[in-house]
């Protein structure tokens, strides 16, 4: 069985990339790893939810082709840590009016203090898009295993299907990733989101370390 997008990207960020992010945020290696493992399902799950909306997959597909195709993940991380990458703008497109809720939820789920949760999301957002562009456009066989065998080019429908599957998998697995995604995005939109359950779940996942 192929690794999920989340698991594959976490694997690619192990080692030096994770250490560099931790240094930027003032976190230990274990803290950084735990926070990334919570943040990536939130980002990829949100993209999966968006791609199921009218025009959502088409808009994301166009952005990946236009702005993120051919980028190396290491170079993207270096650019982001140097102050580039347009992380805030990307998060605005991903979460819309729930961008602040996403950061608050991540902070509640991981114990990140101050602006660390928001900063981590801004670091990861350009990396996620560069990863998706590479996954989609650098090799069709590995990028879109569910696409028609006779097709020679990827489509917005392929992207929407892949991200939709990721969203469903994150929600069905539950745990911290699914709980955070549901708390941030799958509410009724009344703006009154309670993250207290996430704090308790984080304690059980991370051994009660805050």
Could you outline the blueprint of secondary structure elements for this entry?
Elements: H1 5-12, H2 16-25, H3 29-51, H4 56-68, H5 73-81, H6 87-95, H7 99-110, H8 116-137, H9 140-143, H10 156-173, H11 175-185, H12 196-205
Helix pairs in contact: 1-3, 2-3, 3-7, 3-8, 3-10, 3-11, 4-8, 4-10, 5-8, 6-8, 7-8, 7-11, 7-12, 10-11, 11-12
What does this structure look like?
The protein is an all-alpha fold and 210 residues long. The protein has one domain (5-144, 153-203). It has twelve helices and no strands. The model is unreliable at 140-151, 188-193 and 196-210 (pLDDT under 50).
Summarize the structure.
This protein has 210 residues and is mostly helical. Helix content is 71%, strand content 0%. It starts with a helix and ends in a 5-residue tail after the last helix.
């Amino acid at each position: 069985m192929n690794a999920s997008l989340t698991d594959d990207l976490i694997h690619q960020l192990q080692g030096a990339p994770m250490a560099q992010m931790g240094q930027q945020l003032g976190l230990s290696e274990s803290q950084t790893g735990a926070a990334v493992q919570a943040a990536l399902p939130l980002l990829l799950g949100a993209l999966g939810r968006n791609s199921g909306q009218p025009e959502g997959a088409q808009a994301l597909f166009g952005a990946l082709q236009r702005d993120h195709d051919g980028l190396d993940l290491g170079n993207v991380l270096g650019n982001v840590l140097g102050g580039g990458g347009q992380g805030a703008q990307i998060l605005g497109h991903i979460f819309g009016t729930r961008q602040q809720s996403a950061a608050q939820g991540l902070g509640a789920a991981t114990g990140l203090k101050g602006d660390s949760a928001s900063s981590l999301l801004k670091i990861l957002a350009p990396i996620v898009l560069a990863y998706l562009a590479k996954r989609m456009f650098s090799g069709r066989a590995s990028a879109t295993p569910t696409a028609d065998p006779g097709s020679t080019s990827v489509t917005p429908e392929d992207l929407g299907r892949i991200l939709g599957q990721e969203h469903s998998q994150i929600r069905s697995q539950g745990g911290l990733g699914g709980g955070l995604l549901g708390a941030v995005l799958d509410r009724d939109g009344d703006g009154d989101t309670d993250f207290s359950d996430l704090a308790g779940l984080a304690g059980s996942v991370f051994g009660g370390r805050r």
